[in-house]
Amino acid sequence: MVIKRNNETSCDAPPPAQVAGLSKKVVDVPCEEVGPGASKDGIYKNPEYYCYNNVSYFEAEVEMNKYRLPQPSNKS
Predict the structure, then answer these.
(1) CA distance 39 to 33
(2) Other CB atoms within 10 A of residue 35 CB
(3) How far apart, in whole angstroms, are the C-alpha atoms of residue 15 and residue 28?
(4) What GO cellular component entries does it have (predicted)?
(5) Do residues 55 and 17 make contact, with C-beta atoms less than 8 angstroms apart?
(6) Which pLDDT tens digit goes with each residue over 54-72?
(7) What are 8-40's pLDDT values in tens digits?
C-alpha cells in the first residue's frame, strides 16, 4: 500500500500520529499491498483495515499497560 501525501509516500513519511507509548510495531503502516483494492484513492478507502489481525488490540494494550493508573480500592 502506498499513500501519497504532498508528493511523499507513506513509506517515506513518518506515521501521521505519534502516539506516546506505542511502538512502530503497533502504529506503522506497511508499504506493500495489504488488501485487494485497498488504497485511499481506490475502491476500498480504508486500507488500514487490512493492517490489523486478531491480536493487534492486545499488542497495544500490553504496550500501554505501563501508563495505566492502578484501580482505586473500595476498601478503606
Answers:
(1) 9
(2) 15
(3) 6
(4) mitochondrion; respiratory chain complex I
(5) no
(6) 888 888 888 888 888 988 9
(7) 444 545 445 567 777 777 776 666 667 777 777
